[in-house]
Amino acid sequence: MKAKRYLVAGAATALALGLTACGGSTGSTGSGSSASGAASDDSNCADAAVFCIGLVTDTGKVDDKSFNQASHEGAKAAAAADGGFYKYVETQDAKDYAANMAQFTNKKYDVVVTVGFLMTDATAEAAAGSPDTKFIGVDQFFDPATVTAKNLTGIQYPEDQAGYGAGYLAGLMTKTNKIGQVLGLEIPPVQKFAKGYEAGAKAANPAVQVTTVYHPAGDNAFNDPTWGAAEAKKQLDQGADFIFGAGGNTGNGALQEVAKATGAGDTVFCIGVDTDQWDTVPAAQKCLITSATKELSKSVTDTIAVANKGDFEGLTTMGSAGLAPFHDFDSKIPADVKTKVEKVVSDLKSGALETGVTL
Amino acid sequence: MAAWIQRNKFSVILGVVVLVLAYIYYFSDKTTALSMYRYAWTYAVPLVLCALVGVIGERSGVVNIGIEGQLLVSAFAGFFGAAYSGSLIVGILSGVGCGLILGGFLAWTTVKWRMDQIIAGVVLNIVATGITSFYYKPGQLLPALMPHWSIPGLSSIPLIGEVFFKGTGVIALIAIIAVFGIHFGLFKTTWGLRTRAIGEYPSAADTAGINVITMRLVNVTLAGALAGLAGVFLSMDSTSSFERGMSAGRGFLALAIMIFGAWRPLRAAAAALFFGFVTAAASQLQADQVINVPPQLVGTLPYVLTLVVLAVAAGRVRAPGAVGQPFVKEGK
Amino acid sequence: MSVTPEPPPTTAPTKAPNPPEEPSGAGLFSLILRRQSIVVILVALLGSALIGAALIRYQGVSPWYAYQTIFKEALLVDGGLTRTLLKTAPLILTGLAVVIPLRVGLFNIGGQGQFVISAAVAGVTAYAARGAGFGALIIGLLVGVLVGAMWASIAALLKTWRGVHEVITTIMLNNIAAGIIWWMVTTGPGAFKNTSQIPMTGPIDKAAWMPTIAGIPLGFVIAAALAILCGWMLSRTTMGFRFDTVGKNKFAAGYAGIPINRVILLSMVLAGGLAGLAGAMEVHGVMHHFEPAIGGTLGFDGITIALLARSNPIWTIPAAFLVGILRTGAAGLQFATGIAPEIVDLILAITLLLVSIPVLGRWIFRSRADKVQAAATSWGN
């Protein structure tokens, strides 16, 4: 009996050791991807001819269907376009930002993209410490009064403009004069979307009523699709026919709920956020009339290209924000609505129109 | 019937008062009231199911603080099972199956191996978080939406029918049946009597010829199926995607509800509906901009109320006597 | 669970039948068999390392290379050891916050809440005291200890006064703390309007930062010293004796005239104070402000550490160090191999499972199964 036990243990150990041993000597299946003909690893990043791009997420993941994913895709595209090498690290603990950026600077990466405003301070610090690496902070604002480094830029997006455009569309199209929004945590980027949405809707249709609800918890505010869905349903039940879901997975839950409702895509619609959620939340396609987007991927790709060529223009790079394509709804939206919305969006971009949103 | 009313005077009066108030609100502002009640019920469904898991476990003498983990893994298994197989049924079955397996794990380790019940639960939660976030794959879709029906006849009852039976999914219906079924089972059947016996006084139950070990194993394992259904509800019914950590503390909230409901299925369900309504009211206040209560503080309300109830009504709200203790048969 | 007025009748039959064995009773850990415990721990660690290796292999990476990377990143890389020690310090303390009540028979799973609420209040206070230079550090740490102790004492008081089980209260308090801290940094007091828009409290003065001396963070020194102090307290003082007596047999302790309620309260206050100190130390030593992300999973890691340390305070140091190594190395692992850092969570979860599963000990020491039982908290006593 006893001997049998040890036999089993021995066999298990041997099996596990075997597994361990047959792995070869290097773990070469890195997260790195590279364009053909470009550098295949990051051992030569110090070489001027080799262009290396690194990306550090805030505590999210690169598959978060939102800004981490969009930035990740943008950086990947930049690597492909410029023949560079790209690799990312996902941060688990907010205290590791500096260490994770150091992974890249130690290897003399040329560009490090840091994603999310939570990393603002850490990025500024890292940039000051590594003058040879260029830092791009997505969604970050560096105060010229305190940050003097030249090797970094923060990409800023006028979220309020995107929200305004979406709200304007909803205001023009609503039949019930009731529209709603289901939001994540009450923090500035979300508030800007939300207030822009409200302002846009009111501008298009002074009679419109906007229901605004933020998630009631802290920890899960961006990751509670069940709550988002229930909240969206409540607003639909109360007669809202446009729901703006802005708040990571919480907002996505709201979009999916609207897609399930009766009349989805005919009488009730949903509006996504950050990226074109037609692609990232396919379950919402039935109602997703558009998304209030920040052009994250494009701006990351463009800014990396700028960094590859030379210096940044300044501490702040303006990314653009606007509306995603209407996809299947292109034919369902009346032509006059489309022209009006397009005019508003372009006026906002040119500065001819102000959203009037202040935090 | 009269005797029953006499015994549960307080609950009956409270129930009637609440129902009357609910109808008054319903007839004064039908749309808003109905939307809030429906919200409360959607909010309550997974909580009710999870609270039942806790009730069955604790009534049998096994504390289950691993409900959160069961919920998460079942949501994961349900969604990905359905997405990869292309069949909702397979998804539901794999979700429920995972609930059963984890319930079985908890039962086996705590009852058979006498592992500490709290530790077993904590382990379950940590393992669940680790597995589901490591093996999560984005970009999957459910093959179809979960069907929703209106029950003919029942759904036309004002308020109650409209909330519980109109456009309702199968899991919400099971939750209703489970609440009544388990309440009846616990207090009116031999199974219930035995379950309560092994939770209150296992050595006496053993003397009376009840197989405590087997009964605890079976009860805790089968209760896992309810947690599995709750998980499936999260990822397949109330939303149509799985996200990391999407259980969002509901397993723990269910424990609060179980205690708030004094370890009784019907009261637990009432407590879940109450918290659901409070949450709905809070978001309604926020939306109407009546008063701006910080939403984060409103979110803590169920927990604060549970602590208050425990502090105030500690004498009346009592846990099963032998909860948390492994049972060792004498002379073995 | 909430109230058990009667002594539980089921504890009596837990007598082991074999004469050479001690009755294990409802006591906590069988301290007599400490050596056997170490064997169990080592087997568990080896087992989880092997399962982890299989998982890593399954991801297409050499496990040997992966483990090498983790340890290299955490220990050998320039500054790696300092970072590991920085991570170890709060882990020791949150581990102790579980260990000490465990010795009295209480399961404090509220370390997370005690940690974050203390960190938040300490952060606000230290920011308010930003003119005070080094004094702000002292104030911040003291406030952290006090708030943590107070937060934990809610659970302790409900336990002694109302008999409410501490697991339930600490779960509730964790959730309440999470709500409060988010409110504090978003719309409540302590919200610091800054250009970066991070929900956080104001930055504390550089003078109030916790220093790192010669690569060794002061916080680590304090935490290790406290672990040793707790070890000494539990094994060499009357108070420690009382703790263990209450934990092993509450009724005997009552007959011996030990004020049980005071011991319970004291153990939770100590635990809360330690977790609170960890929170304040993270504010002063790592973040230099408070933001909700400061908590991470520190409180829950404390449970793993306490079980790895077999509820021995001194052993929390190596246990926390091990967890610190894994957590520090995780990011480097992803950089080098592309494996998601969650692999570390998975390995820790498996470790916890193997450490706590009594059957492992029973399997190794077949005949003395009950003695190496992983843990038996006096639930319901």
Can you put this structure into words, describing what you see?
The complex is a heterotrimer of chains A (359), B (332) and C (381). With 359 residues, chain A is of the alpha/beta class. Chain A has two domains: 43-156, 3-Layer(aba) Sandwich (Rossmann fold), CATH 3.40.50; 159-294 and 322-350, Rossmann fold. Chain A is built from eleven helices and 13 strands. Chain A has a seven-stranded mixed sheet, with helices on both faces. A six-stranded mixed sheet of chain A has the order 8-7-9-10-11-13, sandwiched between helices. Residues 13-38 of chain A have low confidence and may be disordered. Chain B is mainly alpha-helical and 332 residues long. Chain B has a domain at 45-137 and 167-253. Chain B has helices at 2-7, 9-28, 30-59, 67-85, 88-112, 117-134, 160-164, 170-188, 190-200, 202-207, 212-238, 250-260, 265-288, 295-299, 301-312; strands at residues 148-149, 168-169. Chain B starts with a helix and ends in a 20-residue tail after the last helix. The relative contact order of chain B is 0.18. The longest helix of chain C has 29 residues, at 134-162. In chain C, strands 1-2 form a two-stranded antiparallel ribbon. Chain C has one domain (27-372): ABC transporter involved in vitamin B12 uptake, BtuC. The N and C termini of chain C lie close together (9 Å). Helix content of chain C is 66%, strand content 1%. Chain C is globular, with a radius of gyration of 21 Å. Chain C has helices at 34-58, 63-76, 80-104, 111-128, 134-162, 166-186, 218-236, 238-248, 250-255, 260-287, 298-308, 316-337, 342-356, 358-364, and strands at residues 212-213, 216-217. Chains in contact: A-B, A-C, B-C. Chains B and C meet through α6, α10, α12, α14 and α15 of B and α5, α6, α11, α13 and α14 of C.
Descriptive keywords:
heterotrimer; A: alpha/beta; Rossmann fold; six-stranded mixed sheet; elongated; B: 332 residues
Give the arrangement of secondary structure elements:
The complex is a heterotrimer of chains A (359), B (332) and C (381).
Chain A: H1 2-21, E1 33-34, E2 52-56, H2 67-82, E3 85-89, H3 97-106, E4 111-115, H4 120-129, E5 134-138, E6 152-156, H5 159-173, E7 178-183, H6 188-204, E8 209-214, H7 225-237, E9 242-246, H8 248-260, E10 269-274, H9 277-280, E11 288-294, H10 296-309, E12 316-318, E13 321-323, H11 335-350
Parallel strand pairs in A: 2-3, 2-4, 4-5, 5-6, 6-12, 7-8, 7-9, 9-10, 10-11
Antiparallel strand pairs in A: 1-3, 11-13
Chain B: H1 2-7, H2 9-28, H3 30-59, H4 67-85, H5 88-112, H6 117-134, E1 148-149, H7 160-164, E2 168-169, H8 170-188, H9 190-200, H10 202-207, H11 212-238, H12 250-260, H13 265-288, H14 295-299, H15 301-312
Antiparallel strand pairs in B: 1-2
Helix pairs in contact in B: 2-3, 3-8, 3-11, 3-12, 3-13, 4-5, 4-6, 4-11, 4-12, 5-6, 5-11, 8-9, 12-13, 12-15
Chain C: H1 34-58, H2 63-76, H3 80-104, H4 111-128, H5 134-162, H6 166-186, E1 212-213, E2 216-217, H7 218-236, H8 238-248, H9 250-255, H10 260-287, H11 298-308, H12 316-337, H13 342-356, H14 358-364
Antiparallel strand pairs in C: 1-2
Organism (chain C): Phycicoccus elongatus Lp2
Region (Disordered) (chain C): 1-22
Main location (chain C): membrane
